């Protein structure tokens, strides 16, 4: 039986106590937290498999906490619990990636049933990963699907660079698979049996970045009741993956540069340096050279990170891989949802191969996940795809000449915004990009 680590995040002590007791009796390892911040600190040190989070917390709401959990550990299942239930909130929570949604007063039979379903889903996901690893081998590249020249070149580079203990910079649009490449580099390196620690540089405030990356000593600031080991220190001997490194504030860039130069850190409030043995892999969807020219990214840090670099291709630039990816995602979600979905018809596949995929592979995965969940048959058809793809027209090609790719992207983003009632959170989810990326795009387009 899979032993789950379950977190309860609620500012009502009675709710924490009763939920903890009910789930502990079912054999789960349970820990309760009264605030989102205390939970996130624990989540970094020792991740949870399932989180029951109240919608209204003293320091942030459940919909704010949800993406932070997913940034730390995408496979964690999150259940939103609230006394302020509404259909709209439920829909929004599910669209943001929540596993389930329940309202107060809590029905403990329902809570136990949800925890059981989460346990089954996690168990199937682990078994699927095990079987896939056994089938494809432990090369570390098995999760990157494709046979196009661009992907074959990427495989060759990863195999060549992974054993060399140097920093790597992975560039590419959101949704192209930068995290998968970082993980492959780790698994193929001599550090494969040591920690692989991920940190999203764009998901937190400067204060939180400092405390999470570098740690702190007891009494370093108000609320620091005990010393905390930072992620860089915890990863010693292994690999640190800094996702969205282009979002890191300049003051933190200075500290990171010092770490890369000296291979040591100083905890916040500390006086004794801690030696480090880490490999750094960084990823960004920004053009760091352009950021250096604008003065928003340090040139010396760019050179330190950019020992070896690779730029991942957009899905639109490797359309020959779309059928392989569709097959992969159908198998993945048919197993996860326990459905007998075995393929996709020619018309639906044709619509997908003709689509521009501004959200890249992540968007394709979201489309197939939805289609597998909704289809009543064994084959995905055109009607199982989102309306925008079903009704895709060539009106973007009308007018004076052919539009640029940037113009097509701009029109599509604005269309999705209109479809979602200008709900940026939902639009980013549909597009398969972080909200920060959407905001940056809108600023580029001059859209208020």
Q: Helical amount among residues, as a percent range?
A: 40-55%
Q: What is the number of beta strands? A: 16
Largest sheet: 5 strands, parallel
End-to-end distance = 52 Å
Order of adjacent strands in the largest pleated sheet = 2-1-3-4-5
Query: What is the assembly state of the chains in this entry?
Result: single chain
Question: Could you walk me through the main structural features you see in this protein, from its secondary elements to its overall organization?
Answer:
β3 (about 50-55), α3 (about 60-70) and β4 (about 75-80) form a beta-alpha-beta unit. The chain has a five-stranded parallel β-sheet, sandwiched between helices. The chain starts with a strand and ends with a helix. Mean pLDDT is about 85; it is low at about 135-140 and about 395-400. It is globular. It has helices spanning about 15-25, 35-45, 60-70, 85-95, 110-135, 150-160, 180-185, 205-215, 230-235, 250-260, 290-295, 300-305, 320-335, 345-355, 360-375, 385-390, 405-420, 425-430, 435-445, and strands at about 5-10, 30-35, 50-55, 75-80, 100-105, 170, 195-200, 215, 230, 240-245, 265, 275, 280-285, 310, 345, 380. The protein is an alpha/beta fold.
